[in-house]
Amino acid sequence: MKTLTLVCLSLLVATCAFSGTDIDLGGKMMTFTNLQGHVFAGVKLDHANLDGVIYSLTNGGGGLVKFKDLSPDFLASLNIPPERLEIALQRERADAEQRLRYDAAVRALALKQRQQQTLAVSNALAQAEADTNQPAASTQPAAKRAKAPKVR
After folding, report:
1. Residue 6: inside a domain
2. Residues 53 and 78 sit within 8 Å (Cβ to Cβ)
């Protein structure tokens, strides 16, 4: 089952990576600076997906620069429509909301498990206390114990 899930996930990622929503940037070599001041020198611009610009480096590395981190003028120079920024921001908000829901569910589950553990420990302590408060069985030998009369 785990293998099937991984295969399906891989296919989904591959489909998204090569979807018709990508914009081919033609492998342009360039240097640019993002809005935070980081300089990307001598990078090859591969394509733009729904989230940002995908680049590669000559040494084999690469990455993604989010549209929100690039100036509108730079995006226009790459023929990336302005609505791509809004799409990327909507996707980022949806991802953040999903992470918040997931985190809340994980916290709720952890709280429930702690409560169950606390209840189990409390029950075990109560049972142990009840066991120690019960009168002990008679320590007299069987011959000295009062025998019930036999009924015939």
Report:
1. no
2. yes
